[in-house]
Automatic annotation (TrEMBL):
SUPFAM superfamilies in the cross-refs: BAR/IMD domain-like
Signal peptide positions on this chain: none
One Pfam entry name: FCH
Protein name, UniProt field: FCH domain-containing protein
TM regions (residue ranges): none
Organism: Piloderma croceum (strain F 1598)
């Protein structure tokens, strides 16, 4: 219904009791709202206290682990606090903790402001309004007596009583609304403060530079390194052994079969490596795309798929390297005599025990 700007006193003449009842209902609402904000203040203080404890624990734990996180457990270079402050990851974590600490204080500030500017003010309005209602009633009684006594009834009903009725109700609602608006202003200001804390922490997280942090760790952990020497042949103490590979007829056939088997495995491995390398290239591009636009899907799933494919590729390539090394050693020993490379030239033979073929592991009889 559209507002018409009607006056209580002029539209509802001589209805002080009814307006007083409405006034009491509004006082009841003010009391409910005051209690609501009083409990909100208690919650804000409780939340702030728990958030402060959480941030303090995190800060204490960070103080104990920062050095090992940034420089490792046994850095080789002398370091100080300035070195730790160069870590972008630790700086981001420190800002997250600081954001929580400051946010806790923001909640305390909000609680203090609400208690002072909302709860206490509403309580004051209740008290003063009760006093006003009593004074209005007394004044109405006095004016009625005066009106009867001096025959000013018309002025009483047309001016004095309407003014008192308007004063009783309209002023109360206006003051109540002003307090509620102030409460919303406090909360908006509080949310802006929290947003600022979160934004600042977000900026610090965005500045994390893994390469820079890696360089910092490397710079404080450089140690002399000499690659271990190659393994050498160690002869058996109870047998006559040498480091030379025997190429007598019997062992030569064995290593020729070994050579054929290695080459066969390399042929099987080559298409697997090609396919897996293509798969790794595909996931590399997907990881980059998902990292820049998280709306494309689950980044962790793509990263796990990339790591799994890369691990399989590493395994295949390691196997290839081992087989090539075997082929190289065997070729050097055979000195060009690779045999017919047709290992299965069957002939009738008898063995005292089952003997496996050096190429296909099938037992001869």
């Amino acid at each position: 219904m559209a507002s018409t700007g009607q006056s209580y006193g002029k539209t509802l003449p001589d209805q002080v009791d009814r307006i007083a009842d409405l006034f009491d209902a509004h006082l009841g609402l003010i009391s409910d709202v005051r209690e609501l904000y009083r409990e909100r203040v208690a919650l804000e203080r409780d939340y702030a206290s728990k958030l402060q404890i959480l941030a303090r624990k995190a800060s204490e734990k960070r103080a104990k682990t920062t050095a090992s996180l940034v420089l490792g457990n046994e850095p080789t270079k002398v370091w100080d606090e300035n070195a730790l402050r160069q870590s972008t990851l630790d700086n981001a974590y420190a800002q997250i903790i600081a954001s929580m600490t400051l946010s806790a204080q923001d909640h305390v500030n909000l609680a203090d402001a609400m208690a002072l500017q909302v709860v206490d003010v509403l309580k004051s309005i209740e008290r003063k309004s009760e006093d006003t209602k009593k004074k209005v009633r007394l004044e109405v009684i006095y004016l009625i007596s005066t009106a009867i006594a001096n025959a000013t009834k018309r002025k009483f009903y047309s001016e004095d009583l309407p003014s008192l009725e308007d004063e009783l109700q309209t002023r109360l609602v206006t003051r109540f609304v002003n307090v509620l608006l102030q409460a919303q202003t406090l909360q908006i200001r509080h949310h802006d403060m929290l947003k600022g804390r979160t934004t600042f922490a977000e900026t610090s997280i965005g500045k994390v530079d893994p390469v820079r942090d890696q360089d910092l760790f490397i710079d404080h952990n450089i140690r002399p390194f000499v690659a271990p020497g190659d393994w050498t042949f160690e002869p058996c103490s109870s047998h006559y052994d040498t480091g030379e590979m025997s190429v007598d007829p019997a062992p030569k056939i064995f290593i020729q079969n070994k050579l054929a088997k290695c080459r066969s495995k390399l042929q099987e491995l080559d298409p697997l490596i090609v396919a897996k390398r293509q798969e790794v290239d595909k996931y590399t591009k997907l990881v980059a795309a998902y990292a820049s636009d998280r709306s494309l899907g689950d980044f962790d799933d793509i990263m796990n798929s990339y790591l799994e494919s890369n691990q399989q590729l590493t395994f295949f390539m390691s196997s290839e390297h081992i087989l090539n090394a075997e082929v190289e050693v065997i070729l050097q020993a055979l000195n060009g005599d690779e045999g017919s490379q047709k290992p299965h030239s069957f002939k009738s033979s008898s063995f005292s025990i089952p003997t496996q073929c050096g190429y296909c592991k099938v037992c001869g009889m």
